[in-house]
Request: fold
Amino acid sequence: MEYSYMLVAESDKYPRDLKHSVFTDTRGDTDFPEFDRLLSVIQPNDSLHIPSLADLGYNLTQVCEKWQKLQDKQVHIWILDCPAAHSQPELFGEVLQYVCYSQKRFRNPKHRTVIRDKNGSGPGRRRIELPERFAEVYEDYCSGTLNSREAGESLNVSHTTFLRWSRQLDEA
Reply:
């Protein structure tokens, strides 16, 4: 038997005679009741036509879960905009699972690795060390003889860097 599944806009209507073979969930719906009904109807070796991989879910996890459910049912899946999914469905499923696993792993901060250079510092710009003259320039800034821009210029840093250093000194 051949079936079709897709996500549609609420305004899309299909003839009643197609309802037994075309399963449609509404875009924006999070329950996917028609997909669940499809799983209860479809049998091993049946064919399922899906216009796009995006019709299986709103994120990669949903797509992988639905793909696996269909694979468990031993259904022949035709994703119309992705011929590789039909020619080698097991390989395609493995790639899909790997991408999903990698995405979950990347999002978990415990598994992220930071590239460090030979000095042991991570990515980004190195911190500027506090200049020796900072104390005397800071006193002039506090007394009002220098504003933050002038104080930064005299230390060869931006005024925002000078203000950050001043804030850190005040907090300490």
